[in-house]
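Researcher: Structure prediction, please.
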Amino acid sequence: MGQVFTINLGGVKFHFQLIKLNQVDRQVESQILLQGTTITLCKSGQSGWTQKESPCPLIKDLIQAIGNTISLRYRI
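Model: Predicted structure follows.
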Protein backbone atom coordinates (compact mmCIF):
# COMPACT_ATOMS: atom_id res chain seq x y z
CA MET A 1 0.00 0.00 0.00
CA GLY A 2 2.46 2.62 1.16
CA GLN A 3 -0.01 5.52 1.19
CA VAL A 4 0.90 8.38 3.55
CA PHE A 5 -1.86 10.00 5.63
CA THR A 6 -1.85 13.16 7.73
CA ILE A 7 -4.10 13.78 10.71
CA ASN A 8 -4.34 16.78 13.01
CA LEU A 9 -4.97 15.96 16.65
CA GLY A 10 -4.86 18.62 19.34
CA GLY A 11 -3.07 21.07 17.06
CA VAL A 12 -0.29 18.59 16.25
CA LYS A 13 0.10 17.01 12.82
CA PHE A 14 0.85 13.31 12.65
CA HIS A 15 1.98 11.58 9.45
CA PHE A 16 1.65 7.84 9.15
CA GLN A 17 2.07 5.34 6.35
CA LEU A 18 -0.25 2.39 5.83
CA ILE A 19 1.89 -0.69 5.28
CA LYS A 20 -0.61 -3.55 5.31
CA LEU A 21 -4.36 -3.93 5.71
CA ASN A 22 -5.96 -7.33 6.37
CA GLN A 23 -9.64 -8.09 6.84
CA VAL A 24 -10.86 -11.54 7.89
CA ASP A 25 -14.58 -11.76 8.55
CA ARG A 26 -15.31 -8.82 10.88
CA GLN A 27 -11.74 -8.53 12.22
CA VAL A 28 -9.58 -5.82 10.62
CA GLU A 29 -5.86 -5.54 11.25
CA SER A 30 -3.75 -2.71 9.89
CA GLN A 31 -0.02 -2.26 10.12
CA ILE A 32 1.21 1.35 10.03
CA LEU A 33 4.51 3.18 10.19
CA LEU A 34 4.37 6.11 12.64
CA GLN A 35 7.52 8.09 13.41
CA GLY A 36 9.76 5.23 12.33
CA THR A 37 7.93 2.62 14.43
CA THR A 38 5.75 -0.15 13.03
CA ILE A 39 2.46 -0.41 14.92
CA THR A 40 -0.43 -2.84 14.47
CA LEU A 41 -3.99 -1.64 15.04
CA CYS A 42 -7.03 -3.93 15.29
CA LYS A 43 -10.75 -3.42 14.89
CA SER A 44 -13.23 -6.10 15.81
CA GLY A 45 -16.85 -5.43 14.88
CA GLN A 46 -18.14 -2.12 16.23
CA SER A 47 -15.85 -2.03 19.28
CA GLY A 48 -13.50 0.57 17.82
CA TRP A 49 -9.77 0.52 17.15
CA THR A 50 -7.20 -0.81 19.60
CA GLN A 51 -3.44 -1.16 19.49
CA LYS A 52 -2.03 -4.65 19.45
CA GLU A 53 0.66 -5.32 22.02
CA SER A 54 3.56 -2.96 21.44
CA PRO A 55 6.58 -1.72 23.41
CA CYS A 56 5.48 1.90 22.77
CA PRO A 57 1.76 2.38 23.50
CA LEU A 58 -0.06 5.24 21.79
CA ILE A 59 -2.66 7.63 23.16
CA LYS A 60 -6.16 6.22 22.75
CA ASP A 61 -7.35 9.37 20.91
CA LEU A 62 -4.50 9.01 18.41
CA ILE A 63 -5.36 5.33 17.85
CA GLN A 64 -9.01 6.22 17.19
CA ALA A 65 -8.08 9.09 14.84
CA ILE A 66 -5.73 6.87 12.81
CA GLY A 67 -8.29 4.06 12.73
CA ASN A 68 -11.07 6.42 11.63
CA THR A 69 -8.88 7.77 8.83
CA ILE A 70 -8.21 4.24 7.56
CA SER A 71 -11.91 3.28 7.91
CA LEU A 72 -13.06 6.28 5.90
CA ARG A 73 -10.49 5.79 3.14
CA TYR A 74 -11.01 2.06 2.69
CA ARG A 75 -14.70 1.83 3.76
CA ILE A 76 -14.11 -0.71 6.50
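Model: The radius of gyration is 12 Å.
Researcher: Thanks, that helps.
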